Give the backbone structure.
Amino acid sequence: MNPLLNTIILYARDIQRTAAFYERYFGFTTTGEVVEGLIELTAPMGGASILIHQAAKSVKLGQVGVKLSFSVPDVEAFKASSVALGLEFGSTHQANGYAFANTKDPDGNSVSISSRAFRTAAPVGK
């Protein structure tokens, strides 16, 4: 049996604020209700769900060990629409036939947008 990754758990200092971030900027849906200490966000296009969990004071947030990467067909267009909502991304980087840009969520977790899933050319070295 092959396991399926369908949920990402993020620890947050302010779970309502973090849930609102992913709802506003990435289109996730949520009731905002805290159930069993978690706020559940549902992916808009059927991808993985996010559970926001209250972080203990001892938890160090914003590590670079994890980055959430959202697939978008046009990085520049998504950046422009995000700025209108109040979220800025860093510079757009070009890679093997795709582009990506980075930002941080309210808890300092790394978040990127990438057109990698939409590239038409085969990656170099394949």
